[in-house]
Amino acid sequence: MSRDDEDRILHGLYYYRENIDEDVTVTGEQILWLAMHPLREADAWFNDGQPQSVDTSAFPDDIQSKLSTAKLELPLRYLQYRRLIRYARRGDATISVAVTFAGADRAIRLHTRRGRLDLWYREHKDGIFGISISILVSFVTALATVAIALRLVR
C-alpha cells in the first residue's frame, strides 16, 4: 500500500461525479482499476457509460487475495480513517463510497501539478528535506530583495 494508491482512488472517485457526500456504488474491481492506473488516466475510468474494472481472474489465486488487501482494503480503510471518504460494503459485493469535503479538497489539489507539489510539501515540511527547501526559498527571497534594493538605491 502506498499513498499513491490512495490518491489515485480518491482522485478517480471524486472526478467520477464531482459531488461531495453523495454515495456512489462501485465494485472492488472498479476501484482496483483506479489504484492501478496513474492520475492522468483517471478521466478514462468512466468509459462507455460504465466505470472500467480490472479482471482479477487474470491473476494467480495466491496473488488475488493479496491484491485485494493491498490495493483495495487498506487504501479504503486508510482514506476513511483520514476522513477523506466514507465507505460501506453492501451485501451484493458492491461498495458504497462517498467523498467527503476534505477528500474533495485533496482530490482537487491532486488534479494539478502545482496542487500535488503543495500537498507533497505539506506532508514533508517537518522533515530535513522540507526544512532545506524552506531555507533555500528564504535565501533566494533575501537575495532578490537585496538585488532590488540595490537597484533602487543607484
Q: Overview of this structure, please?
A:
The protein is of the alpha+beta class and 154 residues long. It has two domains: 108 residues, Arc Repressor Mutant, subunit A; 41 residues. The chain contains six helices and five strands, in the order H-E-H-E-E-H-E-E-H-H-H. It has a three-stranded antiparallel sheet with strand order 1-5-4. A hairpin with a 2-residue loop joins strand 2 and strand 3. It is elongated. The model has no long low-confidence stretch (mean pLDDT 85).
Derived structural class:
alpha+beta
Please estimate the helix content. Answer: 55-70%
Could you name the CATH class of the largest domain? Mainly Alpha
For the record, give the distance between the C-alpha atoms at the N and C termini, rounded to a whole number. Answer: 58 Å
The helix-strand sequence is: HEHEEHEEHHH
Q: Identify the CATH architecture of the largest domain.
A: Orthogonal Bundle
Q: How many helices?
A: 6
List the strand order in the largest sheet: 1-5-4
Indicate the low-confidence ranges by residue numbers. none
Count of folded domains: 2
Query: So what's the overall shape?
Result: elongated
Note the main sheet: 3 strands, antiparallel
Radius of gyration: 21 Å
Total number of strands:
5
Q: Could you state the oligomeric state of the chains shown?
A: single chain
Strand % is 5-15%
Provide mean pLDDT, rounded: 85
CATH topology of the largest domain: Arc Repressor Mutant, subunit A
